[in-house]
Amino acid sequence: MTQSENHQTAKSPDHSMFTIGVIGAGQMGHGIAHVMLRAGHIVLLLDTSKDLVEAGAKRIIKGLARDVEKERLTKEACEQALTRLKTATMPTKPAKPAIPKELFFPRRADLAAADVIIEAVTEKFDVKAGVFRLLERYCPPETIFASNTSSISITRLAAATGRPAKFVGLHFFNPVPVMKLVEVVPGLQTAPETVETAIVLAASAGKTPVRVNDFPGFVSNRVLMPMINEAVFCLMEGVADAAGIDNVMKLGMNHPMGPLELADLIGLDVCRDIMMVLYESFHDSKYRPCPLLEKMVAAGWLGCKSGRGFYEYPKK
Ligand code: CAA
Protein backbone atom coordinates (compact mmCIF):
# COMPACT_ATOMS: atom_id res chain seq x y z
CA MET A 1 0.00 0.00 0.00
CA THR A 2 1.28 3.42 -0.90
CA GLN A 3 1.26 5.50 2.21
CA SER A 4 3.46 8.12 3.73
CA GLU A 5 3.40 8.43 7.48
CA ASN A 6 5.62 11.46 7.71
CA HIS A 7 4.31 13.79 5.03
CA GLN A 8 3.48 17.30 6.08
CA THR A 9 -0.28 17.69 6.34
CA ALA A 10 -0.51 21.18 7.76
CA LYS A 11 -3.03 23.42 6.02
CA SER A 12 -1.49 25.24 3.11
CA PRO A 13 -2.17 28.98 3.48
CA ASP A 14 -1.47 29.88 -0.17
CA HIS A 15 -3.52 26.98 -1.57
CA SER A 16 -0.73 25.92 -3.91
CA MET A 17 -0.89 22.56 -2.15
CA PHE A 18 -4.20 21.46 -0.74
CA THR A 19 -4.78 18.54 1.55
CA ILE A 20 -7.79 16.75 0.13
CA GLY A 21 -9.89 14.01 1.68
CA VAL A 22 -11.65 11.90 -0.95
CA ILE A 23 -14.51 9.82 0.41
CA GLY A 24 -15.31 6.84 -1.79
CA ALA A 25 -12.62 4.98 -3.75
CA GLY A 26 -14.87 3.85 -6.60
CA GLN A 27 -15.03 4.96 -10.23
CA MET A 28 -15.35 8.69 -9.48
CA GLY A 29 -13.48 8.81 -6.16
CA HIS A 30 -10.34 7.09 -7.37
CA GLY A 31 -10.35 9.30 -10.49
CA ILE A 32 -10.65 12.46 -8.39
CA ALA A 33 -7.85 11.27 -6.10
CA HIS A 34 -5.71 10.53 -9.16
CA VAL A 35 -6.05 14.01 -10.67
CA MET A 36 -5.52 15.69 -7.28
CA LEU A 37 -2.29 13.76 -6.73
CA ARG A 38 -1.16 14.56 -10.27
CA ALA A 39 -1.76 18.24 -9.47
CA GLY A 40 0.60 18.09 -6.46
CA HIS A 41 -1.93 17.89 -3.64
CA ILE A 42 -1.93 15.56 -0.62
CA VAL A 43 -4.75 13.04 -0.81
CA LEU A 44 -6.33 10.95 1.92
CA LEU A 45 -8.52 8.32 0.24
CA LEU A 46 -11.22 6.70 2.36
CA ASP A 47 -13.82 4.01 1.87
CA THR A 48 -15.74 1.67 4.12
CA SER A 49 -13.50 -1.40 3.69
CA LYS A 50 -9.81 -2.14 3.23
CA ASP A 51 -10.56 -4.01 0.00
CA LEU A 52 -12.38 -1.05 -1.53
CA VAL A 53 -9.64 1.39 -0.56
CA GLU A 54 -6.90 -0.90 -1.86
CA ALA A 55 -8.74 -1.46 -5.14
CA GLY A 56 -9.03 2.33 -5.56
CA ALA A 57 -5.35 2.87 -4.71
CA LYS A 58 -4.32 0.22 -7.24
CA ARG A 59 -6.26 1.99 -9.97
CA ILE A 60 -4.60 5.29 -9.00
CA ILE A 61 -1.14 3.71 -9.15
CA LYS A 62 -1.97 2.25 -12.57
CA GLY A 63 -3.31 5.61 -13.78
CA LEU A 64 -0.21 7.50 -12.62
CA ALA A 65 2.03 4.91 -14.28
CA ARG A 66 0.04 5.46 -17.49
CA ASP A 67 0.67 9.23 -17.12
CA VAL A 68 4.42 8.54 -16.99
CA GLU A 69 4.21 6.24 -20.03
CA LYS A 70 2.32 8.97 -21.93
CA GLU A 71 4.82 11.65 -20.73
CA ARG A 72 2.12 13.62 -18.88
CA LEU A 73 4.16 13.16 -15.69
CA THR A 74 7.84 12.54 -15.00
CA LYS A 75 8.87 9.39 -13.16
CA GLU A 76 10.03 11.54 -10.21
CA ALA A 77 6.72 13.43 -10.08
CA CYS A 78 4.89 10.10 -10.11
CA GLU A 79 7.00 8.77 -7.22
CA GLN A 80 6.38 11.99 -5.28
CA ALA A 81 2.66 11.79 -5.99
CA LEU A 82 2.56 8.29 -4.52
CA THR A 83 4.17 9.51 -1.30
CA ARG A 84 1.33 12.02 -1.01
CA LEU A 85 -1.34 9.31 -1.15
CA LYS A 86 -2.67 8.07 2.16
CA THR A 87 -5.44 5.59 2.62
CA ALA A 88 -7.78 4.63 5.45
CA THR A 89 -11.09 2.98 6.11
CA MET A 90 -13.93 4.90 7.67
CA PRO A 91 -16.92 3.61 9.57
CA THR A 92 -20.40 3.68 8.08
CA LYS A 93 -21.80 5.01 11.36
CA PRO A 94 -20.36 7.22 14.11
CA ALA A 95 -18.39 5.15 16.61
CA LYS A 96 -20.10 4.60 19.95
CA PRO A 97 -18.50 6.92 22.56
CA ALA A 98 -17.40 3.92 24.64
CA ILE A 99 -15.20 2.60 21.83
CA PRO A 100 -11.92 4.45 21.12
CA LYS A 101 -12.35 6.25 17.81
CA GLU A 102 -8.80 5.27 16.80
CA LEU A 103 -9.95 1.69 16.39
CA PHE A 104 -12.28 2.82 13.66
CA PHE A 105 -10.40 5.67 12.17
CA PRO A 106 -6.63 5.36 11.99
CA ARG A 107 -6.26 8.59 10.00
CA ARG A 108 -8.29 11.01 12.12
CA ALA A 109 -5.45 13.53 12.39
CA ASP A 110 -4.95 13.49 8.63
CA LEU A 111 -8.62 14.06 8.04
CA ALA A 112 -8.67 16.93 10.53
CA ALA A 113 -5.84 18.55 8.51
CA ALA A 114 -7.78 18.48 5.23
CA ASP A 115 -8.57 21.78 3.50
CA VAL A 116 -11.29 20.23 1.39
CA ILE A 117 -13.20 16.97 1.60
CA ILE A 118 -14.66 15.68 -1.68
CA GLU A 119 -17.41 13.11 -1.23
CA ALA A 120 -17.98 10.61 -4.04
CA VAL A 121 -20.20 7.92 -2.53
CA THR A 122 -23.48 6.33 -3.64
CA GLU A 123 -25.91 8.73 -5.29
CA LYS A 124 -28.45 8.64 -2.45
CA PHE A 125 -29.26 11.65 -0.28
CA ASP A 126 -29.32 9.71 2.99
CA VAL A 127 -25.97 8.03 2.35
CA LYS A 128 -24.27 11.29 1.42
CA ALA A 129 -25.83 13.23 4.30
CA GLY A 130 -24.73 10.44 6.68
CA VAL A 131 -21.15 10.71 5.45
CA PHE A 132 -21.10 14.48 5.96
CA ARG A 133 -22.60 14.19 9.45
CA LEU A 134 -19.89 11.71 10.33
CA LEU A 135 -17.16 13.92 8.87
CA GLU A 136 -18.31 16.81 11.03
CA ARG A 137 -17.07 14.86 14.03
CA TYR A 138 -13.54 14.85 12.63
CA CYS A 139 -13.14 18.05 10.59
CA PRO A 140 -12.83 21.56 12.02
CA PRO A 141 -15.46 24.14 10.97
CA GLU A 142 -13.18 25.74 8.37
CA THR A 143 -12.83 22.56 6.29
CA ILE A 144 -14.74 22.87 3.03
CA PHE A 145 -17.12 20.01 2.23
CA ALA A 146 -17.68 19.30 -1.46
CA SER A 147 -20.00 16.75 -3.02
CA ASN A 148 -19.48 15.12 -6.40
CA THR A 149 -23.23 14.51 -6.59
CA SER A 150 -24.52 14.40 -10.15
CA SER A 151 -28.03 15.56 -9.35
CA ILE A 152 -28.87 15.88 -5.65
CA SER A 153 -29.58 19.42 -4.44
CA ILE A 154 -26.44 21.04 -3.01
CA THR A 155 -28.62 23.38 -0.92
CA ARG A 156 -30.35 20.37 0.68
CA LEU A 157 -27.10 18.49 1.32
CA ALA A 158 -25.49 21.64 2.73
CA ALA A 159 -28.44 22.16 5.06
CA ALA A 160 -27.88 18.67 6.47
CA THR A 161 -24.48 19.85 7.77
CA GLY A 162 -23.56 22.51 10.29
CA ARG A 163 -21.52 24.41 7.66
CA PRO A 164 -23.76 25.36 4.72
CA ALA A 165 -21.50 28.35 3.89
CA LYS A 166 -18.55 25.95 3.52
CA PHE A 167 -20.39 23.50 1.29
CA VAL A 168 -20.21 23.33 -2.50
CA GLY A 169 -20.89 20.97 -5.41
CA LEU A 170 -17.81 19.80 -7.36
CA HIS A 171 -19.16 17.64 -10.16
CA PHE A 172 -16.48 15.70 -12.05
CA PHE A 173 -17.05 13.60 -15.18
CA ASN A 174 -16.24 10.03 -16.02
CA PRO A 175 -13.48 9.11 -16.85
CA VAL A 176 -12.16 11.78 -14.45
CA PRO A 177 -8.53 11.83 -15.66
CA VAL A 178 -9.72 12.51 -19.23
CA MET A 179 -12.78 14.77 -19.01
CA LYS A 180 -12.00 18.49 -18.78
CA LEU A 181 -15.18 19.75 -17.11
CA VAL A 182 -15.99 20.29 -13.46
CA GLU A 183 -19.38 21.83 -12.66
CA VAL A 184 -18.94 24.06 -9.59
CA VAL A 185 -22.32 24.35 -7.90
CA PRO A 186 -22.95 26.78 -5.04
CA GLY A 187 -25.96 26.07 -2.83
CA LEU A 188 -28.19 28.88 -1.63
CA GLN A 189 -26.04 29.41 1.50
CA THR A 190 -22.57 28.78 0.00
CA ALA A 191 -20.12 31.62 0.74
CA PRO A 192 -18.41 33.28 -2.26
CA GLU A 193 -14.96 32.36 -0.88
CA THR A 194 -15.98 28.67 -0.80
CA VAL A 195 -16.91 28.87 -4.49
CA GLU A 196 -13.62 30.64 -5.22
CA THR A 197 -11.60 27.88 -3.49
CA ALA A 198 -13.54 25.22 -5.39
CA ILE A 199 -12.77 26.95 -8.69
CA VAL A 200 -9.06 27.27 -7.80
CA LEU A 201 -8.91 23.60 -6.79
CA ALA A 202 -10.61 22.35 -9.97
CA ALA A 203 -8.36 24.53 -12.14
CA SER A 204 -5.26 23.31 -10.28
CA ALA A 205 -6.17 19.78 -11.37
CA GLY A 206 -6.17 20.87 -15.02
CA LYS A 207 -9.97 21.04 -15.25
CA THR A 208 -12.17 23.79 -16.62
CA PRO A 209 -14.56 24.79 -13.85
CA VAL A 210 -17.96 26.02 -14.99
CA ARG A 211 -20.15 27.65 -12.38
CA VAL A 212 -23.68 26.33 -12.51
CA ASN A 213 -26.60 27.17 -10.23
CA ASP A 214 -28.19 24.58 -7.99
CA PHE A 215 -31.08 23.21 -10.07
CA PRO A 216 -31.94 19.51 -10.41
CA GLY A 217 -29.38 17.78 -12.64
CA PHE A 218 -27.41 21.05 -12.90
CA VAL A 219 -26.75 21.62 -16.62
CA SER A 220 -24.92 18.40 -17.49
CA ASN A 221 -27.44 15.82 -16.41
CA ARG A 222 -30.50 17.95 -17.16
CA VAL A 223 -29.44 17.77 -20.81
CA LEU A 224 -27.56 14.44 -20.98
CA MET A 225 -29.90 12.12 -19.08
CA PRO A 226 -33.10 12.86 -21.02
CA MET A 227 -31.07 12.17 -24.19
CA ILE A 228 -29.93 8.80 -22.83
CA ASN A 229 -33.45 8.02 -21.59
CA GLU A 230 -34.90 8.86 -25.03
CA ALA A 231 -32.33 6.53 -26.64
CA VAL A 232 -33.61 3.75 -24.35
CA PHE A 233 -37.20 4.54 -25.44
CA CYS A 234 -36.00 4.25 -29.09
CA LEU A 235 -34.55 0.83 -28.29
CA MET A 236 -37.68 -0.29 -26.42
CA GLU A 237 -39.93 0.81 -29.28
CA GLY A 238 -37.72 -0.92 -31.87
CA VAL A 239 -36.77 2.26 -33.73
CA ALA A 240 -33.29 0.72 -34.15
CA ASP A 241 -31.09 -1.73 -32.29
CA ALA A 242 -28.53 -0.53 -29.71
CA ALA A 243 -25.64 -0.34 -32.18
CA GLY A 244 -27.86 1.48 -34.68
CA ILE A 245 -28.93 4.10 -32.13
CA ASP A 246 -25.34 4.63 -31.01
CA ASN A 247 -24.08 4.86 -34.57
CA VAL A 248 -26.66 7.53 -35.42
CA MET A 249 -25.41 9.72 -32.58
CA LYS A 250 -21.71 9.00 -33.17
CA LEU A 251 -21.70 9.41 -36.94
CA GLY A 252 -24.49 11.94 -37.32
CA MET A 253 -23.81 14.11 -34.26
CA ASN A 254 -20.09 13.46 -33.80
CA HIS A 255 -20.57 12.29 -30.20
CA PRO A 256 -17.51 10.33 -29.02
CA MET A 257 -19.77 7.55 -27.69
CA GLY A 258 -23.35 6.64 -28.45
CA PRO A 259 -25.91 7.31 -25.67
CA LEU A 260 -26.36 3.62 -24.84
CA GLU A 261 -22.60 2.96 -24.68
CA LEU A 262 -22.32 6.03 -22.48
CA ALA A 263 -25.16 4.81 -20.24
CA ASP A 264 -23.21 1.56 -19.80
CA LEU A 265 -20.11 3.56 -18.83
CA ILE A 266 -22.01 5.75 -16.34
CA GLY A 267 -24.03 2.84 -14.90
CA LEU A 268 -27.70 2.20 -15.67
CA ASP A 269 -28.62 2.47 -11.99
CA VAL A 270 -27.01 5.93 -11.85
CA CYS A 271 -28.90 6.98 -15.01
CA ARG A 272 -32.19 5.73 -13.55
CA ASP A 273 -31.53 7.47 -10.21
CA ILE A 274 -30.74 10.77 -11.93
CA MET A 275 -33.92 10.52 -14.07
CA MET A 276 -35.88 9.94 -10.85
CA VAL A 277 -34.35 13.08 -9.28
CA LEU A 278 -35.38 15.09 -12.37
CA TYR A 279 -38.85 13.50 -12.45
CA GLU A 280 -39.54 14.05 -8.74
CA SER A 281 -38.03 17.55 -8.70
CA PHE A 282 -39.81 19.00 -11.73
CA HIS A 283 -43.01 16.90 -11.45
CA ASP A 284 -42.90 16.64 -15.23
CA SER A 285 -43.64 13.36 -16.99
CA LYS A 286 -41.06 14.12 -19.68
CA TYR A 287 -38.43 12.99 -17.17
CA ARG A 288 -39.99 9.59 -16.31
CA PRO A 289 -37.38 6.82 -16.56
CA CYS A 290 -37.99 4.54 -19.55
CA PRO A 291 -39.56 1.22 -18.41
CA LEU A 292 -36.80 -0.70 -20.22
CA LEU A 293 -34.18 1.19 -18.17
CA GLU A 294 -36.06 0.29 -14.98
CA LYS A 295 -36.29 -3.34 -16.05
CA MET A 296 -32.59 -3.62 -16.83
CA VAL A 297 -31.67 -2.11 -13.46
CA ALA A 298 -34.02 -4.56 -11.74
CA ALA A 299 -32.26 -7.41 -13.55
CA GLY A 300 -28.87 -6.19 -12.33
CA TRP A 301 -27.77 -5.24 -15.85
CA LEU A 302 -26.00 -2.09 -14.78
CA GLY A 303 -23.55 -1.62 -17.65
CA CYS A 304 -19.74 -1.99 -17.71
CA LYS A 305 -19.48 -2.48 -13.93
CA SER A 306 -21.77 -5.53 -13.87
CA GLY A 307 -20.55 -7.04 -17.16
CA ARG A 308 -23.85 -6.45 -18.97
CA GLY A 309 -25.91 -3.45 -19.96
CA PHE A 310 -26.92 -2.53 -23.48
CA TYR A 311 -23.74 -4.41 -24.46
CA GLU A 312 -21.76 -7.23 -22.85
CA TYR A 313 -18.41 -6.68 -21.17
CA PRO A 314 -16.21 -9.73 -20.62
CA LYS A 315 -14.53 -9.78 -17.19
CA LYS A 316 -10.90 -8.53 -17.42
N1 CAA B 1 -11.21 5.27 -17.45
C1 CAA B 1 -10.03 5.93 -17.50
N2 CAA B 1 -9.44 6.30 -18.65
C2 CAA B 1 -10.08 6.00 -19.78
C3 CAA B 1 -11.31 5.30 -19.82
C4 CAA B 1 -11.89 4.94 -18.59
N3 CAA B 1 -13.05 4.32 -18.51
N4 CAA B 1 -11.68 5.15 -21.11
C5 CAA B 1 -10.73 5.71 -21.84
N5 CAA B 1 -9.77 6.23 -21.05
C6 CAA B 1 -8.56 6.92 -21.45
C7 CAA B 1 -7.68 5.99 -22.26
O1 CAA B 1 -6.85 5.22 -21.43
C8 CAA B 1 -6.92 6.99 -23.08
O2 CAA B 1 -5.89 7.53 -22.28
P1 CAA B 1 -4.37 7.60 -22.76
O3 CAA B 1 -4.21 9.01 -23.19
O4 CAA B 1 -3.59 7.29 -21.53
O5 CAA B 1 -4.17 6.60 -23.87
C9 CAA B 1 -7.91 8.11 -23.35
O6 CAA B 1 -8.93 7.97 -22.35
C10 CAA B 1 -8.55 8.02 -24.70
O7 CAA B 1 -9.10 6.72 -24.80
P2 CAA B 1 -9.21 5.90 -26.13
O8 CAA B 1 -8.20 6.41 -27.12
O9 CAA B 1 -9.19 4.45 -25.82
O10 CAA B 1 -10.68 6.13 -26.59
P3 CAA B 1 -11.42 7.40 -27.08
O11 CAA B 1 -10.54 8.39 -27.75
O12 CAA B 1 -12.57 6.84 -27.78
O13 CAA B 1 -11.93 8.10 -25.73
C11 CAA B 1 -13.49 8.41 -24.02
C12 CAA B 1 -12.63 7.40 -24.74
C13 CAA B 1 -12.63 9.50 -23.40
C14 CAA B 1 -14.24 7.67 -22.91
C15 CAA B 1 -14.48 9.05 -25.07
O14 CAA B 1 -15.20 8.04 -25.72
C16 CAA B 1 -15.45 10.01 -24.47
O15 CAA B 1 -15.13 11.17 -24.25
N6 CAA B 1 -16.68 9.54 -24.21
C17 CAA B 1 -17.72 10.33 -23.59
C18 CAA B 1 -17.55 10.29 -22.08
C19 CAA B 1 -18.56 11.14 -21.38
O16 CAA B 1 -19.49 11.69 -21.96
N7 CAA B 1 -18.40 11.26 -20.07
C20 CAA B 1 -19.32 11.97 -19.24
C21 CAA B 1 -20.28 11.01 -18.63
S1 CAA B 1 -21.45 11.82 -17.60
C22 CAA B 1 -20.71 11.90 -16.12
O17 CAA B 1 -19.68 11.37 -15.86
C23 CAA B 1 -21.39 12.70 -15.09
C24 CAA B 1 -22.56 12.18 -14.47
O18 CAA B 1 -23.00 12.83 -13.57
C25 CAA B 1 -23.26 10.95 -14.84
Question: How would you characterize the overall build of this protein?
Answer:
The chain is of the alpha/beta class and 316 residues long. It has helices spanning 27-38, 50-69, 75-83, 101-104, 108-112, 125-135, 154-159, 192-204, 220-236, 242-253, 259-266, 268-282, 291-299, and strands at residues 19-23, 42-47, 85-89, 116-119, 144-147, 167-171, 181-186, 208-211. Strands 3-2-1-4-5-6-7-8 form an 8-stranded mixed β-sheet, with helices on both faces. The chain is globular. The relative contact order is 0.10. Residues 1-10 and 96-104 have low confidence and may be disordered.
Annotate the secondary structure layout.
Layout: E1 19-23, H1 27-38, E2 42-47, H2 50-69, H3 75-83, E3 85-89, H4 101-104, H5 108-112, E4 116-119, H6 125-135, E5 144-147, H7 154-159, E6 167-171, E7 181-186, H8 192-204, E8 208-211, H9 220-236, H10 242-253, H11 259-266, H12 268-282, H13 291-299
Parallel strand pairs: 1-2, 1-4, 2-3, 4-5, 5-6, 7-8
Antiparallel strand pairs: 6-7
Helix pairs in contact: 1-2, 2-3, 9-11, 9-12, 12-13
The structure holds acetoacetyl-coenzyme A (CAA).
Acetoacetyl-coenzyme A binds at residues 66, 70, 150, 173-175, 177-179, 220-221, 224, 256-257, 262, 266, 270.
Low-confidence parts:
1-10, 96-104
Summarize model confidence as the mean pLDDT.
Answer: 91
Calculate the terminal CA-CA distance, rounded to whole Å. Answer: 22 Å
User: Strand share of the residues?
Assistant: 5-15%
* Spatial arrangement of strands, main beta sheet: 3-2-1-4-5-6-7-8
Structural class: alpha/beta
Task: State the major sheet.
Answer: 8 strands, mixed
The ordered H/E elements are EHEHHEHHEHEHEEHEHHHHH
Output the radius of gyration: 20 Å
Q: Name the bound molecules.
A: acetoacetyl-coenzyme A
Helix content: 40-55%
Strand elements, count: 8
Query: What is the 3D shape?
Result: globular
